Structures are given as C-alpha cells and as structure tokens.
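Bit of a strange request maybe. I'm writing a small parser for structure token strings and I need a real example to test against, not something I typed by hand. Could someone generate the tokens for this chain?
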Amino acid sequence: MGNSYAGQLKTTRFEEVLHNSIEASLRSSSLVPRPVFSQLYLEAEQQLSALEGRGCAVDNEDEEEEGEGGPEPTCPPNACQVHPPPEGCCTVDGFCQAGKDLRLVSLSSEPIDVPAGFLLVGAKSPSLPDHLLVCAVDKRFLPDDNGHNALLGFSGNCVGCGKKGFCYFTEFSNHINLKLTTQPKKQKHLKYYLVRNAQGALTKGPLICWKGSEFRSRQTSANTCSGSLFLPSESSGPLAAFSSEPVPGATPSIPMGAQQAGPASEHPSLAAAVGPAVLNGKDSPKHQQLVKNDLSAMPRPSALGILSNSGPPKKRHKGWSPESPSAADAGYSQGGGNRAKCESAGMSCVPQVGLVGPASVTFPAVASGEPVSVPDNLLQICKAKPVIFKGKYDSHGNFPYLCGNLNDVVVSPLLYTCYQNSQSISRAYEQCGASAVQPISEEMQLLLTVYYLVQLAADQVPLMEDLEQIFLRSWRESHLTEIRQYQQAPPQPCPPAPSAAAPVTSAQLPWLAGLAASSCNDSVHVIECTYSLAEGLSEMFRLLIEGKLAKTNYVVIVRACRSPAIDSCVAVTGKYQARILSESLLTPAEYQKEVSYELVTGKVDSLGAFFSTLCPEGDIDTLLDKFHQENQGHIPSSLTASSVPKSASLDVGGAPVCTSYNLEPHHIRPFQLAVAQKLLSHVCSIADSSTQNLDLGSFEKVDFLICIPPSEVTYQQTLFHVWHSGVLLELGLEKEHMTKQRVEQYVLKLDAEAQTKFKSFLQNSFQNPHTLFVLIHDHAHWDLVSSAVHNLYAQSDPAVGLVDRLLNCREVKEAPNIVTLHVTSFPYALQTQHTLISPYNEIHWPASYSNGVDLYPENKKYFGLSEFIESTLSGHSLPLLRYDSSFEAMVTALGKRFPRLHSAVIRTFVLVQHYAAAMMAVSGLSQMKDYTSVETLEITQNLINAPKQCPCGHGLMVLLRVPCLPLAAVAYERLAHVRARLALEEHFEIILGNPSSGITVGKHFVKQLKMWQKIEAAEWRPQTYLELEGLPCILIFSGTDPHGESLPRSLRYCDLRLINSSCLVRTALEQELGLAAYFVSNEVPLEKGARHEPLESDAEKLSSTDNEDEELHVCLETGSTSEKRSPVKRERSRSHDSASSSLSSKASSSALCGESSAQPGAPSQGERARSPQLCGPLEEARAPGERQRPQASRGPPSVISRHSPGLASQPDPGPRASQKSVQVSVTPSSSQLSSSGSSPSSVAPVAGALIPQASQCSMTKACRQPPVVFLPKLVYDMVTATDSSGLPKAASLLPSHSVVWASSFRPLLSKTMTSTEQSLYYRQWTVPRPSHMDYGNRAEGRVDGFHPRRLLLSGPPQIGKTGAYLQFLSILSRMLIRLTEVDVYDEEEINIHLREESDWHYLQLSDPWPDLELFKKLPFDYIIHDPKYEDASLICSHLRSIKSEDGGVSRKPEELHARRQTARMRLSKYAAYNTYHHCEQCHQYLGFHPRCQLYESTLHAFAFSYSVLGEEVRLHFIIPKSKEHHFVFSQPGGQLESMRLPLVTDKSHEYIKSPTFTPTTGRHEHGLFNLFHAMDGASHLHVLVVKEYEMAIYKKYWPNHIMLVLPSIFNSAGVGAAHFLIKELSYHNLELERNRQEELGIKPQDIWPFIVISDDSCVMWNVVDIDCGGERSREFSWSERNVSLKHVMQHIEASPNITHYALIGMRKWSSKTGSGEVREPFSRCHVHDFIVLNVDLTQNVQYNQNRFMCDDVDFNLRVHSAGLLLCRFNRFSVMKKQIAVGGHRSFHITSKVSDNPVAIVPAQYICAPDSKHTFLAAPAQLLLEKFLQHHSHRFFPLSLKNHSHPVLSVDCYLNLGSQISVCYVSSRPHSQNISCSDFAFSGLLLYLCDSFVGASFLKKFHFLKGATLCVICQDRNSLRQTVVRLELEDEWQFRLRDEFQTANAKEDRPLFFLTGRHI
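Reply from user aminoacidic:
Good idea to test on real output. This should exercise your parser:
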C-alpha cells in the first residue's frame, strides 16, 4: 500500500485510495498530507483540460451523420416500422433469429471466423443491459481513432448462425433481436471493439469512437449552431428561470471534445470535483502542491459560451454569493423590509414555494418529529449566529422544527437549491433526446460538499458558485470515463479489463464523510444521526454550548441509515464565516434597517466604551480635551500651513504661485470622437435598415434630455458638461448668452419631481415631429425596478420603478422621433435574455490597443480596474490596490467580542478610531500611533502635511467610502470633533457627500478655491467634486451606490475599507472600484513611475520588522494568529499587505512621528522618512533627478487627470527631460537600514541636502500616479484572484442584483472575451428577476422583443462617456443638417471675355418670354461658357474674336483634375431627391403605399425602324400599374401603341405637358429621380432611360418609375446613344400620336412636340426676380430665389410661339453670377444639362449615338447650323449636385489581356495598324475622344496655342483639348455657317464624313503651309475610299507610317486614322 503515490491511482478502487491516504498521513512528518482528492482531481483535470483543448476542434469538421439527429441515408426515410419476426424463428434476447447464442460471456472462449476487413464489435441490447452481443462488422463502416471516416451505411455478419451480407443495420438489428422501438442506429448500439486478452479470451475492448454521437445530438438540439449568435432558442425564455426542470435551450451543451478526456479514476465524479477548493482563495499550506501543478488552460469559450467550464480558477473569494434570486422576489413587501432571507445563490430555479415569508427566519408550519430547541445563550457562547443550510431532507420536504431562541440562528435554503440545480443538469440532457443520463447522486453531492469545506482555509468563506462548478465538473467527468479510457489505450492492443465504478452507498456515506473530515484539524465536524436531522441539530447545539466546536467552522449533519434517501444539512459555526454568511443574506434594505436600529437603540455604546479602555492614558476624548487646552491659541508650528519654502515662485503681485495647478480646458479626446462616430453609425444603420424605424431624412434638428440618478453632485456635474461642451449652441437650441436655468431644461434628475419635466419633454417631441429627440439614460444600471412593483407598493417609495415608468412608457416606445440611448459602465443587467436592446445596437468603448497597434494615440492612458489589478503583480513597487491586515484583524477580534453588532458598524467605528488616533499622532500625540494602522497613519500624515509642500497650500483628497448614510453621519461628526479639538480646521476640510444634498465647504476653503481657480463671483460655491481640485480634504462618500460622481485629480487615497464586502455582485464591486479610475499621462510609463518612486511609506515598509506577535496587541487577548488569517499568507504579504510590515510596535515608534513639535518650521526627520511624498524632491528615490532640474517646481507636468467624461486633461508642457527618476538609496536591498537600527538618522543627510527645493506641490505627485485604493481583505482576495484564463474572480460573480443565472450549468467567462462576447454570454446565461423592468418583455408577442430605436453605450467608469455622447449629439446634428444640405457645383461661366459684343441688345429687360421676331435677330454665341467644358476646345466664330494670347489659358496638368468648386446648399422644399429620401408625402409616389402593390409593373416591347441604324430598333418599357394611364394600349393589358401627348392649346396648370427623360447609369441609389417635391405634386410623366444590364437594380430602387430600357447593343455606349434614342423614340411617338389623334379630329400641329432631357444630378431650380429702375432703363436690381420645377416648366411651356424654338434651356447656377449674366433675359447660345427639345423641328438633326463626351455641344452646333433657334432663359438657373459615383465615371479603360489593373495613359489609346500593341477593353469611340482630348497636338502641331488659325472641323465638334481652337462648319446644303474666307486653318478634321462632304466643298477653305489633316473612318477600306472621293492627294501629302487605329481588337471594330500634311 505504501506505493500509492507512485502514479498507480488511476484504476485503484476508491476505498483503497482513502486507506492509502490515511496510511501516508500517519507516516508523514508534516501535519497535513496532500488530500487524496487532490491527487485524483489533478490527474483527472489535467487530462480533461488537455483533451478538451484538442477536442473542441472536432466539431468544426463537416459531419456526414448527425448522430441521432435524423434518419441514416441508407435507412428508409420513415420512422422505424418494426416488422413482426418470421414465423417459427427464435425471439429470445441474446440469441439471433436462428437461435444461436450471441452473448459475449458465451462466446468469449469460442473460435470465431472473422472475414478479412471485418472486426468483432460488441452491440448493446436495451433488454440485456449487462451483456454485449458479438457481431462482425466491415471496418470501413466503423470510424477511425479520431472518430472520422466511417462510411455511411452498414455491412455485417451474424457470428452465431454465420449469415452474411446484412446491408442495413435495421435488418441486422432485427436478426439479432435487439427489439427496438426507435430507429436503429449503428452509432447507438455498436459500442465496443472486442479483443482477445493474453489468455486468448474475447473481452470488451475500447469504446468505438463515433465522433461523440451520443453527445452530438444533445449539442445540436440544445444549440443548433453558432449561427444563433444573438438569440438563444425560444425554449430558453422565461420558463428557464422558474421551471424546476430547466428547458433544453437554457442549458449549454458539452463541447465536442469533452468526451475525449484523459484517464479516469474509479470515482471520476470525485476526481473531477475537488479542484475548486484549492481555488477558493489563497495558497493555504494544504494546497501548495496543487497550486504548483497549475492546470493547463482550457479552450476559450465561444461567444455563446457553449464550452463548459474552462478549468478551475486559481483563487476563490470568500463569501456565499448573496446576489441570488430571492424567494420572495416576485413582489416587494411593504417598505421592502420583508424580503425573505431564503435566497438562492445564482440559481435558475426559484426556491420552492413555502420559502417565502417574513424577514425573520422562516420555518415550515408542519413539525417533522420532535422540535429542536435553540439554546438561549447560543450567541454569547458562539460569538456568532450559526447559519444552517438545508441540504437533502426527507421526501415530504419538511425540515426539523426549531423552537426557542430563534433570533440566534439563520436558516437558508441556498444549499438545497444548489443540490436541486445540480440534479437538473443531467435532466436537461435527457430532454435533448439522449439516452438516460444519471444525475450526480445525492451521496456524491454531500461527499463533494464535505471535501470542499475541508479544503477551505480558516479565513475563507464558501462560495456557492464554486460548489456548483465542482458538481458540474464531477458530473461531466463521470460521463467521460469510458471514452477517456479508450483514448488512453492504443486502439488494437488489449486494454486491461475495466471494472465498473462502485457508487457510494448511503451506508458508506457517514463513514466516508467522517474519513474525509479527519484530515482537517477539526475545521469540519460530521455528525451522523439515526432517526432524523433533529437529533443531529440537537447534538450540534449541545456541542456548541459545551465549547467542543471552538475550532470547528462547519458541522455536517447526515442521516443515512434508515432508508435509501438521505437527509443532510450543513451548519456554519465558524465565527468569521457565520457572520459574513448571515449578513450576506440580508437585502440592502434590511442591512440599512439593521444598522439604523443598532445606532438608534444605542447598541453601539458598548463599542465606544471598549475603545475607551484601550488607551493607557485614558479616554481618547480626555486626551483631546487636554491637548486642546494645552495648545489653545497656538497651533504646533510643525503644522502651520503657511510655512512656505523660500524658493517658491511668486507671481507679479507677490502672491505665491503653484504651477502644478491647472484646470484643463474642455476638449474632445480621439477616443471620445471615435465612440461618438460609432454611435452615429449605429443610428444611421437603424435608419438604413428596411424596417423604416427611423427616418433620418425627415428630421431638421436634434434635441435631447439627459436622465441621471437623483444625486445633486452628478446633476451639477452633468449641467457643467452640457454647458461647457457647447452642444446647446451647436444644436441651435440656445443662443449665445444662455443662463443656467436654460441648461437645466436638458438634464432630468430622476426624483419625485421628474415626471412633470418628463411629460413636457414628451409633449415637446409630439409637437415637433421634425425634431429628432435623443433620450439619454445615463448611469443606466441604476433603478431597473419594474413599474409593476411600484403599482403594488406605490406608497412605500414614489421613486421605485421610476425609470421604467418614464423611459419605457408607451409614448417613448412608439414615438418615431425619440431615440433612447442607455449609457453605463456596468451594462450587465441590461444584457439578459429579455433585454429590449438588440445586440447590434450595443456600442462598447474601444480597446486602446489592437495587435499591439495604438488605435487612438492619446497623451493620456486610462487607468482602470484591470490596471489596478496589474499593479498588484510582481515587478512593481508597492501595489495601488492594498488591504490593511491590522485593521482586518482588529475587526475580526471585535466581531467575536460583539457578536450582536453588524460588522459594518464595527468596521466603521474601528476605522474612525484609527483616523482619530492618526490625526492625534500627527499633531504631536506620538503615543497614539500605536492605536492606528500604518495605512491610516500614512493617509493622515500625507493629508495634513501635503499643503506645506506647495506655495499655494494645495493638498490631496482622501475619499472615505461609507455606504450606509447613518454611519457616514456618525463618521463625519466624530472626525469633525477630533479635527476641532486638534485645531486642524484650517488644515483640511471634512466633507459629507450625501447623494440627496449638495456639497458644503467651509468659508476659508471656498476662499482658497476661488483664489486658485481665479473665480471672482462672490456667491460662488463648489457644486461638484471636480471643483474641489487641490483642496486638502476627507470626502466621506455615502449612499448605497455611487451615481457617477467624478472625482478631482488631487484624489490620492481611495479608502474603500467599509464597503459591504459580504454583498458582492459584479456591478456593485466594479462600481466601487470605479471611483478610483484615473487618466495617466502617456509621457511617463506608469510601470516605471511606480517602480522607481516609492509610494508614500516605502522607506519604512522596507526597513520595518515583521512583528507578527506585536501586530495585534491592540486586540488584547481576543484572537490568536491562526484565527486571523491563513499562515501561508505571510509569504506574499510583503508587497500586498502593507500592514504586515507593521510599525505598530513601540520599538519603532520614533520612526513614525518623531518629536514633531520639537522642530519648528520644518517637518521632522521622522516625517520625512515616513512619507517621502510629502517632502516633494526629498524623495530619496528621485534625488539625483531632482538635482538636475533646479527649475522643477516651475512647470511640473500634470501627468494624471482625474476627470469626468469630456474634460480630459491637457498635460502642462513643462520640462520633461529628467522625469525618469533613478532609484538610489531606497531599494529592496537597502532594508538593512533597519537592522542597523538607524532608519531615521541614515536618511537625514540626504534629506537635508535637498531642503532648498522642498516646494514640490502634492498635486505634482498626485497627478503622476493613480490613487491608492484600500479594500476589505475579502474583496481584495476576490479582486486579485484569477481563474485559469486570467480573468479576475470578481468578473465571474453574478452580474447584478436584479438578474439570476439561467442555469447553474453554464460555462465560465473567459479573459479573452471581448465586450461583445461578454454581452452575448450574459444575454444567454442570465434572466431578469420578476422585479426587473425587462422581466415581461418576451411576452409582448414579438419574437425578438428588441426595441428598434434603443442603443446601449458601455465603457469603463470615468473614461469620458459623457463627453462622447455630447459629441455624438453634435455630429448627429451636423449630419442631419448635412442630410438637408447638398454640394452643388458653383463655378463661374468661362470665356466671358470672349463673348460676342453685339451691337444689338434684347432691350426688354422685364419680358417674361422672348419675342420671336426680336430673338431671331440675336446672333448665335458659338463660345462654350459652361464651366464643365473648361478644358474643351474653343469654337471660333469670327477672326477678331480671339487673339492669340486669349482663351485656352494653359493650366498645369494637375489643375485639370483638381476638384471642381462646389457650394453647400440647404435643400429647399422643391428639391429633387435620391433613394435615401423618405417622407409621408412621397411614399405613394415612390410606390411604397399600401394601395400600390409594390413592384407591380409590366414589360412592354416597342419597336420602330430607323434607317441610320439600318435595322428595326426594339426598346422595352417597364410601366408600373399606377402609370399606365400615360400610355395607349391596343386593349387593356395588350400591345403598347403610344405614349399620350397633350395639346399645344391645353392651358391646364394641373400637370406638366412635356415628358421628362433622364438617361442614367451607375446611379440607382444616388440619381435624383424623385421629382415629387420638385414638381410640387403636379402630375408629370417621368421616364428613366437605363441600360439593359442595370434594369433590375433600377427597378428594385425605383419600383414606381417608368423605365425605358436600351437595347443590349448599347450596354457599353455613351450618353450620345441614350440621347439619340430618346429623341428618335419621341419623334416616332409624336407621329403615332398625331395619327391617333387625327382620327379624333385634332390637327397634327396641335400635338405637343416638346420633351425634356434632364441630367440625373439636377437638384434645384431658381428664378431671378428683376426690379427695373425705370421704363426701358438699363439699371436694375435683382434677387434669386428657389422655385419648383413645376413653376419653371409651366412658365416655359406657356411661352408664346413656343413651337418655333428648337431647343430651350437655362443657366447653370453660380453664386458668382453677376448682373451682366442676368441683364439679358434671353440668350441665343449653347444649352446644357436640362433642355426642352422640340422633336418636331429637330426631326432631321440627330444626336451622334457614338459619342461619350461633348455630345450636347455637337448637337447644339448642328441645330444652329440647320437654322433653328436655341434659346436660353437667363432668369432661370439649374443647380447640379455633385455625385461622386456613376455617370461618365463608370467607364474604365483597362487592358484586355492582363488582369492586373495597370494604369494605361491616353497616349496608349491608339497604335499603328497590325502592330503588337496591347489591346484595350473599351469602345473605340471612347478611346478616340480621350486620345484627342489629351494628345491632339500630335496630329495638329501647328494649331497648338494658335487661336487665330484654328482647326477646321467638318460636321462635328470633337474636343481637341483646351490649347487648340476649332472652327465648326456644316456641309449640309442651306446650313448657316460662319464666314471662313478670312481664316487660314492650321488643320482639317474629317470625322466619319458622309456624302454631303465633297471635294468641291473642301476647296473653299484655305490652309497654312504645313497644316495637318486627320481623316477618321470605320475601317481601312473606307479610309482609302474617302481619300480618293475627296481628291485629298491633290493638296495633302500622305505617308504609309501616318496611318493609325484605336487600340482595339479586330472584333471590337477599331476606328482608323490617316494623317497628312498640306503641300
């Protein structure tokens, strides 16, 4: 037996292991052997974790078979139909139908013939659970070792009768008589490989690894796939919280790899479970080996938390989780006092009915057997109320009846609930369709509980969540045993025959429990009783009274003899544990009530009396009075605040100046801006979603209301932020000079008066539907109580449920213009299964670093909880998180002495006593230093001495957190009294911070603050804590929870020793620690700072002795060391436990206070040594650095800003060169100072050397490091303990009081989870309590239950969330304004100076329409003035018009592509809109109306022949049902015949006569096709002209628009093709309409011949109003205003003689338009962008369908040369929006061969014919136009900048670039051309010339010698024919190399050029 530690444990039986352990312990010299459970557990857990890491990958493989999820493909698809066996065959279980025995026991020694490729396997029959049936199966249908590669289907033989060839497992299972009622599955029934052992016998071998089929089906049904990322399955609704059997969806599934865990012990459930006991806290001696064997990390849980528990945490916190669901939580009792004490710890099942009851301990009404009497003097003897946790008790549910002194015991059902939940773990599995899974047995639960308790150290408290994890791990382990055994063994060799694990029986239980408890030195005592628990309880009370349980912390009572059922309970009798547990069962209201009761009834007087006895000199008050009398009239000189060192810098007026004090200006940090932008993008995504929940386009401005908790300081702080952020001015809500009363309109304090203000907000939102109201709920985790609770108990507190009543009221939910933003640092309670906030609407504060990259570089680093925890790790000097062990020890000792007092009362009195003693010690009563702790003395010394180091008297703030209001008042009074007696009123202020009232500060200090902050207002008083910057003070911060109050940078100590440590939930804990959050400058790495600058009392801490025996002499004889704390703790206490190196001994007293009064004018040496911080540069660690910077005191950088959101600090740009201080004299190695006994004197010389520079302000130091935080020991252990993933233990607590865990069977959180993953975790695993406002959310009928306009912003405390959301409001407002604004082109007309100066003017300035006869006399202006043609060739009309230096101003190439000038314009009510605009009025127009069936439209073909194209043109119309009235059909639904046209004589103002055609490409979203508002609601016909390939997308975005779809041959064509087809179609339609209406008696000339061709970027139209000075006078004034397109069109259409005009257009708008442009009301010139075209007059003038650019200029010139009139209305202008996508930008010229997008320059667009040039994928015409635009000087070298000798361009206008001018002539007979006789042309351009161009026509023109010619034709053949036909060779010389082509392949039909020179 002695070799039991040699690794043989794995297969040893459990009892043997226990005996081995006992034997080993007898031989062992150490007191406590390693517990046997640890051996078992560690082996098991290591294997398990290693294999889970591997196993989790398995699930990602594609799986062919879904386990039991569906029928096998080879089986018939229907459910199993059990056919009756054939007549006469055998049906005996274990035999085949031929009657042969198949059982393994019978065949083990029989020889069996196994064919090649087959294996013997064992099948399980449900009717023979103890036997395996032998089968031979083809191994191809079995999985390999990894559970993969099994073929689908089956092939097997019967080894009994020898029948072969079974192809279906169904058939085979019938043959071997499995007798199944379900679909037979090979995975389910073929369980084991069979192997021969050494004797040749056939035995059961390893499990067949079916890739976890048994677990797979559970996984799939419990959580179908990770696709259900955001919503848990429906079954996990509210039921999961209350049914006693959790529903399947509410429990996670075991990870796929879980079954592949390592070797199991015989009792795997025990083996799995023991670990967490180690984990609960610290490295107590029993657990040293365990902690060394740290467990390997588990795989990270997925976002859904499907992976189970990821390994045990290293440390555990002490304290049952109190936050559990209260049994009585379904309703608040009167006044909240009656909430039952029966609270379960984070369980999903609400405790059974009958647990609800009054506040006193509740007992069942029915007695079970004899009652148990509670002794009267129990509390006096035990010094604590025992807490009895009901465990398992008899089936009637009755617990023994207690009578007598019931006030001295507490009974709780927590443990019972935990047991019940652990039983339900496996039931959840059964419901998922798996075969029966055994729950963990009751015996095993109790045994595990005993072992858990045994492993707890003396100063640890049991935590229910630990026990749950133990049960879970144990249960999981027990179901992995067989699989793990198989995984261990090689697949083929014979494993040892396993023996079945023996379950613990109820008879063994008491013995095993006693055995387990035997090694724990009596800390756990087991009582076995025979008949009922009552006798065990009586026995326990007897032992307690007799004092026999003095060392016992836990008593376990078991009754297990009489029946199979066991009864048990656990009583906590340890004084420390019982006190904490009983207090944790109180609700917050009961806790306040209890404390108030103790204060009111005077119970605390005994405590005061006790303190009086401690001082040998007598009562402290007596000492104070004596001191007061002695010093009356003169303050000790050591304390005078005026002792300013001489070297302090003075300002001009002679007053001292401190450079450390700078209140920073308000500015936005990069982080805040990033978060504001994230918020904005979430709002935009809500608006962009198809749900139409937010119509951003309909809002014109932003308004807001910020709701905050009822804290006066928070209220004032928020007002301050709103005021200084400037947001009210930016939103246009207030004018420049706003008053504070106006700002108060925007901040709502949620108190009794809130409802009135909120109602006016709602009314305001209702009355202003075009204002977007943002309702900001700051500190949103506060008051989540449901309004239903308020309705029940309205009289108790009117504020209960206020948030729910206001923010969740129907009006807010339904208002389409209210967006609710919840802002909180602790969002967990808003992330439940019932939350109203969609996971997509959560915004988390971004991490500063991602993959090592600083995402948002800032000069400040946030220092929050995780950084505080990091500071406790090694490598730093003193940690910033600490606990005070001497304080804790005194509290524990007093707790035993005064068992009836609540520990909060004791802690407060002790701490106040410590502060009082410390103040006295610092004031000169040095004997009092023995009656305080080192920590408190350090705080007080620094507080009192700091102002002396600063020329202005700046000091530091000490935050003393006292959550209970009555206790805070007591502390305030006491400290104020002591301060007064010590004459310290002028040295520091004591402020009582009460949430319900403002701040009160003494006049002397207000005066100081006003002076420092340069405030002159006489009435000014500080209203926020931030305004206390630099004030030396103790802030007693009271109130149950902090409400978001920000603290100043001068906060130096955060004393949280009084927070309610027994009542821990994650929110409460993080919110307390959040008080200390800070911003640290990035300039100095904090680690260096912390390492090289000893914090405060480093010198002594390092030089003091470790006097354990003297540490607690204050506590007299009340406690021994072992009771105070676990002994091992000493090892790590040097860095963490600042009091362990306590100076409380009298021997070292001189090092503390010295004789301070003996050295007037300067701090004593002792003080200097004691507190380097106060001495400024006297800090030894920084001495060398300080010597190098004599100017240090002038500009020390403020390294830390303690600031609230939005007020981040700006570091002072002071000298930073020598900031890195060097540690010289005080290092850990220099602790020999103390051993020489010369601590004070050895420091003195150094200190003395530096006295001249002692003027360092404490603010400098305070701004360099975050505050030091003191915590209760319990909280400290919880915060610093981490689990295996490194996650602090505190984070895995229940997230909030108002929620419960959905299941105890949940994975653990992981440190690697992002905020989003944590949110998803809580959304899956928590449900709200009935009192939570979200509790009823899921019942509203909508499946998701999310509110569409609700967002959640979460970020760490004090990081700047207020600034971020105020910035969000600003950018939201800017965006809304931006949405109502548009960038329009704003460019001056070009070539104004070249305009024809005509002798003739159109004199009638005020004519509304042109006079036809006058107009005909106007000359045509050939010059292009449109600024978009700035780089186009000039068109010459007269020789004198252009001088050589004029025009074509050569611009630098980069200017050509410079962004065109735009202006931002506010959209008018007459604007055209794109697809993003939605409003009520135009819903029907867009087709989104209920009466208009969406997308209901028909496709119609429309054909007409056109000779130029040489074929019939076939177009398609898409006509929505709502627009069919514009068309004529042969019959309803028949052939489309024509588009209706009105008559010229119609005078109706109801509609627009001209159909509007808008050609468009690539702008389905951005094109401005919504003309509803532009047309002012008038009826009009609007047709979108689209390419065939874009038809579907345009139809999707514009379902109610008529589409004209161009033929597919035009898919790559330019805008010329669209214009050409529009015009030809319109003319053809005009002819059809004339014929149709002629039959109705209407003359052909009366049909309206005009159409509008409009660009898709025309956004608004304007009119110029002229005010003439006099009749026919040329003086006038004018103004421009926005009008509707309807107004413009109806004005133009009403023109007299309109049908005589061919083209009508208007100016392009420009802000730079001068009176010259509008002087002439009409011009005869080019028109662009928006034209009214007479298709009748222009019948014979066509657009060039090949053109891509300048096709409108080309067409204008043709129209004019045909003798037709072009008229531009100069009083109308069109604004064109800049649209960055689509249009001509959609043409990309790329290489046809290579895929890589190499930039191709225009010079490569042409090449020599037959060359090996890279061909391009672009139309030939586009290449030609682009080439000529950029490189025409290669063809026309003489023409470059030679404007007096232009290029002659025949019948076409091509852009040859801005440096070449062209002269346009038409070859048509009777055409109007300019006189060319004076011109000598420098070139000739013949582009695709037709038969009108002849040789004689060309001979009319004169050319310069050397002028060049360019002929462009479709192919080489026509090129030659043209040269011959035009007799070009007579005057022009051609060379072979002068032939070119566009760089197109042959199939793309390139264009060919020929160039020549004039002879």
